[in-house]
Specification:
Blueprint lengths: L1 H18 L6 H13 L4 E5 L5 H8 L6 E5 L3 H11 L5 E4 L2 E3 L3 E8 L16 H4 L4 E11 H12 L4 E5 L5 H8 L8 E7 L10 H10 L2 E8 L10 E8 L8
Parallel strand pairs: 1-2, 1-7, 2-3, 4-6, 7-8
Antiparallel strand pairs: 5-6, 8-10, 9-10
Amino acid sequence: MSRYIRELSDRWLALRLAVSGRAHQYPEILALRRFLTAFEVDCVFDVGANRGQYATSLRIDARFAGTILSFEPNPEIFAQLTRRAARDPSWHVFNLALSDFDGMASFNIMAADQFSSLEHPATGQDAIFAERNMVARTVEMQCRRMDGLLPELRGVHGFARPFLKMDTQGHDLSVCQGAGEVLQEMCGVQTELGVRPIYEGSIDYRAMIAWLDERDFSPSAFFANNKGHFPRLIEMDGIFVNRALLPTEA
């Protein structure tokens, strides 16, 4: 009976997403539901939160009830994120960027704010991005390394099984490098993988997969992260599982 209930729930989710124009998110949400439940994740680091779209989907679509820690550097967008999170006592927001150093840096706010980044736009971008992914202005922003920040946050929020989600527009590798040894404390990692990178010097998907593999994170799921990627895939997201959580192979 439980299998039939789950299938009905999944079909209802698919219908609801289709009606709202979010059908492309269906594989991601199913993968997140399964992963967060199977590995008993109790805290999600939402790095590059924008207005809180991912965190809201975690609550409503993925049915995640644990702690959410959202990080958003853009001060204007952060104000909107703060208002949205205020209704949820287990959702906490921080106006800073995660990177591979502690200190101040220039943060690029793009014409379309969801592309804002510590990185610079690449030249020769696809037309779909060219006008939106261009620097409109910069602001000085505090950056923190996760290996210093995570112990502080654990002391406040008491989580034991965190999950790292990143959507930092070409800066995900730097976030991981700033995690140092505490990256191994993550049950899993969700990262944006550039097939046709749109930021200068950003790592491509093959190199990022190899980097995570060297640190004992194996692919769990891949999915396109935008319904407009046709006919050529530009970016996708990947969920990676910490191999320490997997059964030992015979």
